[in-house]
Design goal:
295 residues; globular; eight-stranded mixed sheet; three-stranded mixed sheet; alpha/beta; single chain
Length: 295
């Protein structure tokens, strides 16, 4: 769990708060006061067309309230890249921020995977709040490299629950169904986002057909070393994605430039298959209002 000083520093340094570093901090303080007064979650604006339930227990939603788009580079890329006719797959959806951007703001179809039962319910609540049930399919399933049942932690912060290791005997867990993306998906997504607290290797292992299908144009994946929890090397995931025809990029949301980089980064990396295709999409996308800014 990040400390209070870390949270404040992150909010102040976020690019959306650059013009007024204390605006985001003021939103943070306001929400903490509201949490003392109201016990439940409250709907608050997210993007131009969307809302999220925010408050105590919805850390994933709250961070977007403080900063507009908490994962600014990755979320702005999604907003500029996706089209209404696309399919988006959200692996490790958490409370559904990326799903809401894809289906609520852009109008694309989404398939979202969230294993933790309580967080899955928050995902469903955010889908309902935005009236996008017809565009989304939320699955209380682990996307992995096999089919079966495995243990998943349920007592940690919604952003930190993960597939339990054999050594984690003192953490509350639940038995959750696991299946592969190749088994579940009946259509190929244009974009996949994968953020599964170190289990990314297994997600990719179960997505061989999907990964090599030319219709899959982009991947957003977190490779921050947490795969070591399971004995995995994130560099091997990077190599497998590269061999499937992708290259890693950063994204400048202001200029809408995709800049190729030498390797993966220590956090979320954007991988692109066809850079000309991706460039045309992000350059031609309309502007979207987030808080008081347009991207």
């Amino acid at each position: 769990m990040p400390s209070l000083s870390h949270i404040i520093r992150f909010i102040r340094r976020h690019p959306f708060n650059a013009h007024n570093q204390w605006a985001g901090v003021a939103r943070f303080i306001r929400l903490q006061i509201e949490n003392k007064i109201f016990t439940g979650l409250r709907p608050k604006p997210f993007t131009q067309k969307t809302k999220l339930w925010m408050g105590k227990g919805s850390e994933g939603g709250n961070a977007n309230y403080y900063c507009g788009l908490v994962d600014l580079e990755q979320m702005s890329f999604l907003l500029h890249f996706l089209k209404p006719e696309d399919l988006f797959v959200d692996v490790g959806a958490n409370i559904g921020a990326y799903t809401i951007l894809a289906s609520g703001e852009i109008g694309a179809k989404s398939i979202s995977f969230e294993p933790a039962p309580a967080t899955y319910q928050m995902l469903c609540n955010n889908i309902s709040l935005n009236n996008i049930e017809s565009k989304t399919s939320a699955l209380n399933v682990i996307a992995g490299g096999e089919e079966g049942i495995i243990k998943f932690t349920v007592s940690l912060n919604s952003s930190y629950n993960h597939v339990a290791t054999d050594a984690e005997t003192n953490i509350a867990t639940a038995d959750i169904s696991i299946n592969t993306l190749d088994n579940i998906l009946t259509a190929v997504p244009a974009l996949i986002k994968i953020d599964v607290e170190g289990y990314e290797t297994e997600v990719i292992n179960g997505a061989e057909k999907t990964l090599h299908n030319k219709k899959l144009q982009a991947i957003i994946i977190e490779l921050n070393g947490s795969g070591a929890r399971y004995g995995y090397d994130d560099n091997l995931v990077h190599s497998k994605i590269m061999k499937a025809g992708f290259k890693p990029y950063t994204y400048n949301y202001k200029t809408r430039e995709l800049i190729e980089i030498a390797s993966k980064r220590g956090h979320d990396t954007i991988y692109i298959r066809d850079i000309a295709f991706a460039n045309e999409r992000v350059k031609s996308a309309g502007k979207i209002k987030v808080h008081t800014q347009y991207i």
